Amino acid sequence: MERKAFGDMIVKELAKKYGDEVTIEFREVQKINHKALGITAQKKNNVVSPVIYLEEYFQELIKGKNIMDIVTAISSIIECIHPDPRKCYAELQDYEWIKPKLRLKVINREKNRELLCEVPHKGILDLSVIPYIVLDHRGEMSCLIRQTMLDMWKTSFEELFAQAEDNMNQMVPPSIQKMSDFMMEMLLDTSGDSDDIESDELLQMLKGESSIPATEKEMFIISNKEKLNGAYAVFYKDLLKNLAQSLNADGLFILPSSIHETLVVSGKGMNAADLRGMVQDVNQTTVSEGEYLSDNVYYYDLNSEEIRIA
Predict the structure, then answer these.
(1) End-to-end CA distance of the chain
(2) With b meaning 16 or more CB within 10 Å and e meaning fewer, what string describes 9-47?
(3) What is the pLDDT of residues 191-244, one digit of tens each?
(4) Residues 6+ apart with CB under 8 A from 173
(5) CA separation (Å) from 98 to 155, 224, 238, 262?
């Protein structure tokens, strides 16, 4: 079964279930880096119609899950739609309610030209920084900001961007971790529990034996404390400057791992072409379409304190 036929079948079954109480529509939605198929479910007298994306459910169908079980799963989401639509709509209209929920993330500009026609943004190199709203405490539920929303709030992009930038500094501070330490933690996660030693003690032992002071060949992972949409963290003021100085390096190469993090290494003895080839290979074989950031490698120059495409 193709995705379109699957979507049509889901809409048909949901329409039979809800009748005129819920309006179900099948649509294609522009997401980061790609378009996705989903359905909107709008309850009667409700101004809110969230999109339920179907790819995950389609993959379950391919693996053998019964179509009616999938319909039941989607129904449970529909039935959890905001119970008070007037309150929900009022909250979205209230800029004071929105302000502390503003965040920033960075995406590839070329792959998102159509989306950026509707979304306020700021260009950086081959990337675009866009503001969005977090709707839960973990930041996993979010909403992109459209130009029409700025008009509704009667605020400028400059004001909104400044507020989002301040929120990032205060609520989502950057994180930086040596790749060697990250690999040790991954090893512990996959090695199982030990009966003789606590995990944190084992981690300290491993670090004590194999961790060394940062060298010019050390690679670092830069993200944020939530590890979500963390690639923007590389643009935090003074972060790269402090890292370059600590490594006694004139500059740093920045490798866009995904929209969630970047990898950074001293520029000493490194070749931009080789690093670019590595990034492109990883993007083609490992990074999902929705998390892709760029095939380019960037260089931070300590003297000018600027980032450029290498």
Answers:
(1) 45
(2) bbbebbeeebeeebebebeeebbbbeebbbbbbbbeebe
(3) 555 444 444 554 454 444 434 345 557 889 999 888 889 999 998 878 999 999
(4) 224, 225
(5) 12, 21, 28, 28
CB atoms within 10 A of CB 123: 10
Q: Which residues of the chain, if any, have pLDDT below 70?
A: 45-50, 80-90, 136-141, 188-216
Indicate the residue type of 192: G
Contact indicator for 283, 265 with CB cutoff of 8 Å? no
Q: Are 78 and 22 in contact (CB under 8 A)?
A: yes
* DSSP bridge pairs for 51: 40
Strands 219-224, 174-178: pairing kind: antiparallel
Instruction: Report the 10 Å Cβ neighbour count for 208.
Output: 8
Q: How many helices (H) and strands (E) does the chain have?
A: 12, 13
Of the candidates 281, 310, 282, which has an alpha carbon nearest to the alpha carbon of residue 296? 310
Tell me the CB-side half-sphere exposure of residue 161, using CA atoms within 13 A: 14
Nearest in space to 124 (alpha carbons), one of 153, 151, 149, 161:
161
For the chain, what is the largest distance between any 2 Cα atoms, rounded to a whole number of angstroms? 68
Token code pair at residue 273: 């072409």
3-class state of residue 188 by DSSP: helix
Sign of CA dihedral 159, 165, 170, 171: positive
Q: Give pLDDT tens digits for 23-56.
A: 888 888 778 887 778 888 777 766 556 678 888 8
Q: If you search the block for the tokens 């001293």, which residue do you land on?
A: 266
Q: Structure tokens of 82?
A: 């905001």
Sheet bearing 51-53, strands edge to edge: 22-31, 34-43, 51-53
Q: For residue 232, which of 111, 114, 128, 139 has the smallest C-alpha distance?
A: 128
Taking a C-beta distance cutoff of 8 angstroms, is the pair 20, 44 a contact?
yes
Rounded to an integer, what distance in angstroms lies between the CA atom of residue 232 and that of residue 168? 9
In angstroms, the CA 185 to CA 203 distance is 7
Which of the 8 DSSP states describes residue 44? T
